[in-house]
Amino acid sequence: MSEKEKVNREKDNVADKVSLEFLRVEDYPEFLEVMQDSYKSMQYMVWTKDQIKKLIKLFPEGQIALWVNDRFAGAALSIIVDERKIEHHHTFDSITGKETFSTHSPKGTILYGIDVFIHPDFRNKKLGRRLYEQRRELCENLNLKGIAFGARMVNYHKHSDSISPREYLQKVQSKEIHDPVINFQLQNDFRPTRILRNYLPDDVLSEKNAILMEWDNIYYEVDEVETTPTLTKSVVRIGLVQWQMRLYHSFDDMMDQVEYFVDTLSGYRSDFALFPEYFNAPLMASYNHLSEAQAIRELAKYTERIKNRMSELSVQYNINIIAGSMPEMENETLYNVGYVLRRDGTVERYVKIHATPDEEKAWGLKGGKEFNVIDTDCGKIGVLICYDAEFPELSRILADEGMDILFVPFLTDTQNGFSRVRHCAQARAIENECYVAIAGSVGNLPRVHNMDIQYAQSMVFTPCDFPFPYDGVKAEATPNTEMILVVDVDLELLLELHEKGSVRNLKDRRKDLYTLRKNK
């Protein structure tokens, strides 16, 4: 690869800043321009400003705007309808009241998607998944039965002389024909339930046909009171990567493995992906001829590239990534740092506060000086790297700052070292009334000095009280085996614990006798 290609690739890997916001009437000029660019074959089918204004007035929560780097990039529009309207054949005109939205009913039970589009410049970045996941969350928050919409069959015109719409759908499902729209819906857990003929009379690509796609809300409860839509969650899904240390042929080979795990955890709709401490250590194999201190500094040169690539993955796969830890040089000083790479494209840095004796002796690594709670779309989190979890003062200060989940990426070579991290991490969950997730590496690196063996068992710990597992272990991976662990944790249970727990470790502290604070 030439130097010019490397530079271009580095630029491409800088993550976009992505946000989902409720659509505003003031957004209409950008909305119109992006819609026209998105529907080249249907230029005359655009929403008027009055229609958008009416939609926003009727159902503001259902109109979502997608922004990328402060540029309007797409939108998703929806209404709520009575489920009887989709039980039989319908057209776009009938389901939207001839685009007057007279069919919208706040007492309905089906969220009906009437449009979704993304500007061509932002396609193939998995941003469409973001819009659909937002629709699903809205459906769940409003306690609706499900989502429905008519999906276009954009490649049917190429086959209409030989097969019917029904046969076309079957061939798309069996991968004999490619249809980007239908394939996308299927990949996002929507199921086809009916052919809708004459759905959009002006859709020449689909020859007026569409497929009714549906998704069921498994959390729907008949008697539940409607709730206000929110962009935060109470049940958070954590994904842990128990990483296998292995030799890689190149940087890209290692990043392919990273993307594999990110993609897998995203497929399970995880909110977080936690990687272990020094997960990038295999790249040191190329520098094994150097001293240990020199080799780790060569590894530090990859950190910025890894951060940028993983930030890009967090946006593409709609998952917050906690990038374990990596060596990083700052003002000629070596630190052990990591990054929280939010799925909106923003980044937060954290640093290991306590360097281990071995890190100091072999590498000359120094401890950092700052640690803080990090805000995310799934609550407040803290990150302590390995040895830091063995110092209870750090996590107690983070708990006082409102931490809900503590993430601990670690690297241990023996069961003794693992046991220290494991038992201290569980103690942090009990004393701080929070969840603690730990993730480590397994396997061997015979060609990397000071990193030759690993032992790990990734786990998620909870407080020990009645709403939680009796032993405080929510889930655990198989020891010393490469795998992922996917775990749901309920943040609302923590709020109940803080006030009504059998014991209240946070509230019952004797602050008249002792206090804990950060030194300035």
Report a brief summary of the structure:
The protein is α+β, with helices and mostly antiparallel strands and 520 residues long. It contains 14 helices and 22 strands.
Structure description:
The chain has 520 residues and is of the alpha+beta class. The strands form 3 sheets. Strands 8, 9, 10, 11, 12, 13, 18, 19 and 22 form a 9-stranded mixed β-sheet that branches. Strand 11 and strand 12 form a beta hairpin. The longest helix is centred in the last third of the chain and has 18 residues.
Write the layout of secondary structure elements.
Blueprint: H1 3-12, E1 18-22, H2 28-38, H3 49-58, E2 64-68, E3 71-81, H4 92-96, E4 110-118, H5 127-141, E5 146-152, H6 165-173, H7 180-187, E6 191-196, E7 210-216, E8 235-245, H8 251-267, E9 272-274, H9 292-300, H10 303-316, E10 320-322, E11 326-330, E12 333-341, E13 347-351, H11 357-363, E14 374-376, E15 379-383, H12 392-400, E16 405-409, H13 415-432, E17 435-439, E18 441-444, E19 453-454, E20 459-461, E21 473-476, E22 483-490, H14 491-500
Parallel strand pairs: 4-5, 8-9, 8-18, 9-10, 15-16, 16-17
Antiparallel strand pairs: 1-2, 2-3, 3-4, 5-7, 6-7, 8-22, 10-12, 11-12, 12-13, 14-15, 17-20, 18-19, 20-21
Helix pairs in contact: 8-10, 12-13
